[in-house]
Amino acid sequence: MKTISLEFQTEHLEAIGLIPPGFFTRYEEVELLETLRLERGWRLQLLRIRRRGPLRSAAELARESRRIRRLYGLESFELVERRPRTRDYILLVRQRNPPAIARLFTVAGGEITPVAPFRADPTHTVASFYGADLALRRVVARLTRDGLPFRVLRASGRAYWGPAGSEELTDRQRSIVSRAWALGYYAVPRRLSLTRLARLTGQSPPALSKMLRRAEGRLVARFLASTEAPRSEEPVPSSSA
Questions:
Q1: Are residues 54 and 94 in the same domain?
Q2: Measured between alpha carbons, how far is residue 25 from residues 29, 50, 110, 191, 233 in Å?
Q3: What is the count of structural domains for the chain?
């Protein structure tokens, strides 16, 4: 499995319908926090969107829901959190894929998924994908054939999962911990309750609490193992050498 990060001109992604026209007249930046579901016809994603100017209230967004969905081509959206200090919305968004993205998904055979870092501003977009090497090569070849300009920023044999040690987590644990971090569950003070996080992840609070404790235990064990290793006068060869 492999991760690849590509850089595009944002205007080119607007041209193929991935970013709605005029989006950046109202917003400064959009970041993909997590893809919850990806199919040929639609995608369900957790996004951080930074607004130009003060945030609207939850009530205002609810009143204008129909207009917002029509303006940006959304099937639905849910406000998860408002962050007035940074002018960020955290939104759960369901959106239809434009034809160009649906074609890429078909070419990839469902074997890739968007991962961090994945963010766009008015000029540049960095898009990262994790998946089978052959599927990623097919996607890159299709982008080239379609004449969509891009450059490769990074390609590796490891997925981007964040802090060192997180590779020891299961896929499910990585997904839950990543979402908890993005939504502010680990912030001080905490911006999201366990009950709210459980609803967003489809878990019961007790099951989610147990899953988080197990994941946190693995990360702590890895950290302690790396910091408490006995020192030696001679350098110890790395096990990966």
A1: yes
A2: 11, 12, 33, 28, 60
A3: 2
- Domain C-terminal end among 128, 156, 184: 156
Helix (H) / strand (E) element for 30: namely: strand 27-38
Domain boundary among 108, 132, 156: 156
Domain that holds residue 176: 166-227
Q: Tokens 């959009």 — which residue?
A: 30
- Report the half-sphere exposure of 117 (CA within 13 A, side-chain side): 12
| pLDDT per residue as tens, the chain (241 positions) | 888 999 999 999 998 888 888 899 999 999 998 888 888 889 899 999 999 999 999 999 999 999 999 988 899 999 999 999 999 999 999 999 888 888 888 888 878 888 888 999 999 999 999 888 899 999 999 999 888 899 999 888 654 444 444 446 777 888 888 888 878 888 888 888 899 888 888 889 999 998 898 888 878 776 665 554 444 444 434 434 3
What is the token pair recorded at 212?
Answer: 């988080």
Flag whether 161 is in a domain. Answer: no
Residue position matching structure tokens 């001109």:
9
User: Are 70 and 100 found together in one domain?
Assistant: yes
Cβ-defined contacts of 14-22 (< 8 Å, 24+) = 16/98, 16/100, 16/101, 16/148, 17/73, 17/98, 17/99, 17/100, 17/101, 18/98, 18/100, 18/101, 19/120, 19/125, 20/71, 20/72, 20/73
Q: What angle do CA 4, 9, 13 make, to 5 degrees?
A: 85
Whether 15 and 92 map to the same domain: the answer is: yes
**Same domain? 27 vs 45:** yes
Domain CATH number, residue 203: 1.10.10
